[in-house]
């Protein structure tokens, strides 16, 4: 049998000899593949399957029901593998009974000494337990969790038990999330994740006073943060393993605690005060009460500190509904503008700054946004001549390039911005009048030479008006 190379070499000679024949490239290819005896390779039964459609009730109702029943039984088996409350109590008792003091152990002054266990007793405890505990009593677990200081070779009982609790929580959560994975491929769509959050809300203690009419808006707000950070390319799905590892679920499940500090609630995106604050802002901005925000309505966001040039770009580039921004788009905007130092937020905002869609910011782009900021600042001479602004556009451009230190001296890419760690400052200077003011007069503010009255006087020229 000829190889592909020999077949194509022979074909080339034949084509040169019969140039008068008019055949397409595909006809030539199939003819000489047949001569080489390789036609069987193109039989469908020999081709690998690259795509297998998802089995739904519309495709095959029997297979869909069988698959659903099989998945249900699988989840039940996985749940049965988890330790119950009584089993955890039994384990805790054994760990206390077999604890041993390390030779270099130093007692704590408060009297609450941590208990330790060595590997010998670690194995003894394992022998007293059923196979259900075996996954926690592997040598690798002991080596990874053992004390790295003076008590090396000994494992803290508290550390070990916390590890077990964390592992059980992770397995329970993964099992719960997987039940909303309609495809069984390990990821959740927005609708699937929203269904999970809606079922989770009644179990969160701090959300008991939340009205049921607000559940849909709350679920949308929760899902939006996960997708904003975990799906920056807008694929419409996020992996379950990413949901578990990102840490957002920890913040969400903190709402199960009855008592929580007010300072923590303010920082927690998922808390009731945070949800009501964000939703209330949306209602206040929606002047015509049509459920959408137009460009003029969004201009009042953050007391109107964003420039017209930036807002124009938002409505040119962002996903909008008939030229207006819906609640999901508003949540994306809030997440990006309130977390300007995060790479995902910078990716979102960079699309607005890149007015030429060229993948980088050049001097023209920086001057374009800087001029919009300068136009909002009062004149230096105070006679109303707005042509005489308080800052130099050329100086701003030079400062930005010096700050970011791009790989290529004439252009700033998103990669340059993220690497520099100065993304938040860059955004503040180019799109936010108040952010620019804070940067421009940072030394004066730091020395407390400009009082609140002086700030009001400085902005009396209307820098927050459009």
Care to give the gist of this entry?
The chain has 466 residues and is mainly alpha-helical. Helix content is 54%, strand content 3%. It is built from 24 helices and 4 strands.
Question: Overall pLDDT, averaged?
Answer: 84
The arrangement of helices and strands along the chain is: HHHHEHHEHEHHEHHHHHHHHHHHHHHH
CATH level 1 class label of the largest domain: Mainly Alpha
CA-based shape: globular
Number of strands: 4
The oligomeric status of these chains comes to single chain
CATH topology of the largest domain: Recoverin, domain 1
Strand order in space, largest sheet: 1-2
Number of structural units classed as domains: 4
The stretches of 5 or more residues where confidence is low (pLDDT under 50) are: 384-388, 457-466
Specify the CATH homologous superfamily of the largest domain: EF-hand
Q: What is the second-level CATH architecture of the largest domain?
A: Orthogonal Bundle
Helicity, in percent? 40-55%
Please provide a written account of the structure:
With 466 residues, the protein is mainly α. It folds into four domains: 43 residues, no CATH class; 85 residues, Recoverin, domain 1 (Orthogonal Bundle), CATH 1.10.238; 88 residues, Recoverin, domain 1, CATH 1.10.238; 176 residues, EF-hand (Recoverin, domain 1, Orthogonal Bundle). It is 54% helix and 3% strand. It has 24 helices and four strands. Helix 9 crosses helix 16. The longest helix is centred in the middle third of the chain and has 22 residues. It is globular and about 80 Å long.
């Amino acid at each position: 049998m000829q190889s592909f190379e020999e077949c194509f070499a022979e074909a080339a000679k034949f084509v040169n000899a019969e140039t008068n024949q008019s055949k397409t490239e595909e006809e030539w290819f199939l003819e000489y593949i047949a001569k080489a005896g390789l036609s069987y390779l193109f039989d469908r039964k020999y081709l690998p399957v690259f795509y297998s459609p998802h089995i739904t009730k519309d495709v095959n109702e029997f297979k869909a029901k069988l698959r659903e029943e099989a998945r249900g039984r699988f989840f039940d088996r996985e749940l049965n593998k988890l330790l119950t409350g009584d089993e955890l109590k039994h384990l805790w008792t054994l760990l206390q009974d077999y604890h041993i003091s390390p030779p270099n152990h130093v007692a704590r002054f408060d009297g609450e000494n941590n208990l330790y266990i060595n590997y010998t007793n670690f194995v003894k405890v394992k022998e007293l337990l059923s196979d259900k505990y075996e996954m926690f009593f592997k040598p690798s677990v002991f080596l990874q969790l053992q004390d790295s200081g003076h008590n090396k070779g000994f494992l803290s009982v508290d550390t070990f038990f916390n590890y077990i609790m964390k592992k059980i929580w992770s397995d329970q959560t993964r099992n719960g999330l997987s039940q909303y994975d309609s495809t069984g491929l390990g990821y959740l769509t927005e609708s699937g994740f929203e269904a999970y959050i809606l079922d989770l809300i009644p179990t969160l203690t701090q959300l008991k006073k939340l009205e049921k009419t607000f559940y849909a808006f709350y679920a949308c707000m929760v899902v939006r943060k996960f997708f904003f950070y975990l799906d920056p390319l807008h694929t419409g799905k996020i992996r379950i393993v990413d949901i578990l590892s990102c840490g957002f679920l920890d913040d969400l499940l903190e709402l199960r605690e009855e008592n929580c500090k007010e300072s923590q609630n303010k920082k927690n995106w998922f808390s009731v005060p945070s949800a009501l604050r964000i939703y209330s802002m949306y209602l206040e901005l929606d002047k015509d009460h049509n459920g959408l925000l137009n460009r003029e309505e969004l201009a009042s966001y953050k007391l109107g500190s964003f420039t017209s040039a930036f807002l124009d770009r938002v409505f040119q580039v962002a996903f909008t509904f008939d030229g207006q921004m819906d609640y999901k788009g508003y949540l994306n905007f809030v997440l990006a503008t309130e977390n300007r130092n995060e790479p995902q937020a910078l990716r979102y905002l960079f699309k607005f700054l890149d007015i030429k869609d060229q993948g980088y910011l050049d001097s023209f782009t920086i001057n374009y946004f800087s001029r919009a900021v300068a136009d909002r600042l009062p004149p230096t001479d105070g006679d109303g001549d707005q042509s005489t602004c308080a800052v130099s556009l050329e100086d701003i451009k030079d400062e930005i390039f010096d700050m970011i230190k791009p790989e290529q001296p004439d252009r700033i890419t998103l990669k340059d911005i993220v690497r520099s760690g100065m993304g938040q400052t860059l955004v503040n200077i180019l799109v936010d009048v108040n952010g620019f003011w804070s940067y421009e007069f940072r030394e004066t503010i730091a020395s407390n030479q400009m009082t609140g009255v002086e700030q009001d006087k400085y902005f009396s020229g209307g820098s927050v008006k459009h």
